[in-house]
Design goal:
This protein has one helix and six strands, in the order αββββββ. With 95 residues, the protein is mainly beta. The chain has two domains: 40 residues, no CATH class; 52 residues, no CATH class. Strands 3-6-5-4 form a four-stranded antiparallel sheet, with no helix packed on it. It is elongated, with a radius of gyration of 15 Å. The two termini are 20 Å apart.
């Protein structure tokens, strides 16, 4: 639990619990707590894919809504020294 969580959130199951799957140059975010209807905290500021020398040529990133399949362009930055790719929203809002 972090500073914004309380024992009651555990009891009533409003905590955030996600699984991320990286496959075929796609990341899927799965909500594993069906009692939680969305982000409650500060959200995820960015996703960093580590040990990713094969992603050096990345030239596009987006996320697609499961609700209506709309695509939103994402900001990305490859760090050649660390060989990682950081993905975030263009506005800096949580993912």
């Amino acid at each position: 639990m972090d500073e914004s969580d309380s024992f009651s959130e555990i009891q009533i199951q409003t905590y955030e619990y996600y699984q991320f799957i990286l496959s075929a140059n796609s990341i899927k975010k799965i909500n594993l707590n069906s009692h939680n209807d969305g982000p409650k905290g500060q959200g995820i500021q960015s996703i960093i894919i580590a040990n990713a020398p094969d992603l050096i040529g990345t030239d596009f990133a987006c996320w697609t809504s499961e609700k209506d399949n709309t695509a939103t362009e994402m900001k990305f930055k490859y760090n050649s020294d660390l060989q990682n790719l950081e993905i975030s929203t263009t506005e800096g809002t949580p993912i």
